[in-house]
Design a protein that fits this description.
Shape: elongated
Number of helices: 18
Number of strands: 21
Pfam family, one: PK
GO molecular function: ATP binding; kinase activity; magnesium ion binding; potassium ion binding; pyruvate kinase activity
CATH class of the largest domain: Alpha Beta
CATH topology of the largest domain: TIM Barrel
Protein name: Pyruvate kinase
Keywords: ATP-binding, Glycolysis, Kinase, Magnesium, Metal-binding, Nucleotide-binding, Pyruvate, Transferase
Oligomer: single chain
Helix content: 25-40%
Distance between the termini: 33 Å
CATH superfamily of the largest domain: Phosphoenolpyruvate-binding domains
Catalytic activity: pyruvate + ATP = phosphoenolpyruvate + ADP + H(+)
Largest sheet: 8 strands, parallel, barrel
Radius of gyration: 24 Å
Length: 483
């Protein structure tokens, strides 16, 4: 496998259009770095097969691949109608209640008593991605009498959003708990939590995962935006899930929120994905719209770690073309001189530790001399994340003896992950391993130099304390480096 020619990562969702070895391998070769398994679609047997195929592609191509399992979360839906659908007129009265009887033009079941417990007069309810809007006039423990403020066709089991209320719902449904245990036993690298509202939602999932997967919180509720700093503190990564966020908030609010969340994630060295409708037209067309290309480019200029394809790669007619388009847009943006200026201007975050100082120095040395790559040895992945936060101009080679760490880091900006054959015991051999990885990956030749960061004693997380500018020629390393 050739090295990637861009630093932002690409997440591709798998589905009916990308379900076999040939297609999944082709998606990876086209540029996908992370594969998303959507637990809302497909049973456990299908998910297991996709997981096995990804791991086979990983083995055949010799590069760590990250797998993200996206839990469905609590889905709020209306019941069914006697006529399958009804037309709601603006100004009409419409009632939601717990009665399981089939609905009509005046009422329908909403089988979620938790919603009624949280509603107040004046609350808004959005049905079918906001196409229908209801305003609560009065409510009780088992009903809400509403006025239709935006009319349209309402039909069986359409989704409901409650934008201005923090719902007393657990972030994990019974299905989610079963799915979480299943994918953790399979061996996924990331768990994405849907409809997070509060940090306690993340902590519940973290306790159930018990260290078997990193936790990524999807920000798609106004309550999550309000509590973002607290949610970020207990998450390993973030997804800016713009679909429901754009339903529950005015659409013009989403771009500045996206920008703020990306910067906050970068400040604390946690990866962030921008998702939803990035190349939506490519579900049916081999060419994206100019606006979609601009949207992808904007996320890259903002410094996001990853950009994501959903239905484009899962169910669309042109999954490989969609990944190729994202890859090409990323290469073009990252070769723009303005990109480097923008990325540099966004550097921030408190730097108070020895590891912070080491990675800042590594980036500055690489940018002021003819250094080809920054190579970091890492156990937990923290050092590589700190280097990634700096957004250096040169590639980052993350070396670790732990395949799980390498797979998780495959989501992070700029990281080329290498699993070392075994734990490194001496610094000289660490430098030799880094030089070999740089040469074999096509990042450097024997005439070039690299920066190596590591921690002594080795194989202990959180001990980054060494920076070495090293030649890539092994004879020079053995002649000059300390043991």
């Amino acid at each position: 496998m050739k090295r990637r020619l861009r630093k932002v990562k690409i997440v591709a969702t798998l589905g009916p259009a990308s379900n076999d070895y040939e297609m999944i391998r082709a998606l990876f070769e086209a540029g996908a770095d992370v594969f998303r398994l959507n637990m809302s679609h497909g049973d456990h047997s299908e998910i297991r097969v996709r997981h096995q195929i990804i791991r086979q592609v990983e083995k055949d191509l010799g590069r760590p691949i990250s797998i993200l399992a996206d839990l469905q979360g609590p889905k709020l839906r209306v019941g069914v109608f006697a006529n399958s659908e009804e037309e709601l007129e603006v100004g009409a009265a419409f009632r939601l209640d717990l009665d399981p009887a089939e609905g009509d033009v005046t009422r329908v079941q909403l089988p979620h008593k938790e919603i009624f417990a949280a509603l107040e007069p004046g609350s808004s309810l959005l049905v079918n991605d906001g196409k229908i809007r209801l305003k609560v006039k009065d409510c009780g423990a088992d009903f809400a009498n509403c006025e239709v403020t935006v009319g349209g066709t309402i039909s069986n089991r359409k989704g409901v959003n409650v934008p201005d209320v923090v719902l007393p719902l657990a972030a994990l449904s019974e299905k989610d708990r079963k799915d979480l245990e299943f994918v953790c036993q399979l061996g996924v690298d990331w768990l994405a939590l849907s409809f997070v509202q509060r940090p306690e939602d993340v902590m519940e999932a973290r306790e159930l995962a018990d260290g078997r997967a990193a936790i990524l919180s999807k920000i798609e509720k106004p309550a999550a935006v309000t509590a973002f700093d607290e949610i970020l503190a207990v998450s390993d990564g973030i997804m800016v899930a713009r679909g429901d966020l754009g339903v529950e908030l005015p659409v013009q609010n989403v771009p500045p929120i996206q920008k703020r969340l990306i910067r906050r994630c970068r400040a604390v060295a946690k990866p962030v994905i921008v998702a939803t409708q990035m190349l939506e037209s490519m579900i049916d067309s081999p060419m994206p719209t100019r606006a979609e290309v601009s949207d992808v480019a904007t996320a890259i200029y903002e410094g996001t770690d990853a950009i994501m394809l959903s239905a484009e790669s899962a169910a669309g007619s042109f999954p490989i073309e969609a990944v190729t388009t994202m890859n090409n847009v990323a290469i073009e943006v990252e070769n723009d001189p303005n990109y480097l200026d923008i990325i540099a201007a966004q550097r921030g975050g408190k730097k108070t530790t020895v590891a912070d100082g080491i990675v800042v120095a590594a980036r500055e040395i690489a940018e002021t001399t003819n250094i080809k790559a920054i190579c970091c040895f890492t156990q937990s992945g923290t050092t590589a994340l700190l280097v990634s936060r700096e957004r250096p101009h040169v590639p980052i080679i993350a070396l670790t003896p732990l395949v799980g760490t390498a797979r998780r880091l495959a989501l992070s900006w700029g990281t080329h992950c290498v699993v070392t054959p075994g734990a490194v015991e001496r610094f000289k051999m660490a430098v030799v391993s880094a030089a070999r990885a740089a040469r074999e990956g096509g990042f450097a030749t024997e005439e070039d130099q690299i920066v190596v960061t590591a921690g002594v004693p080795f194989n202990q997380p959180g001990t980054t304390n060494i920076l070495r500018v090293a030649p890539c020629e092994e004879r020079l390393i053995f002649n000059s480096d300390p043991e």
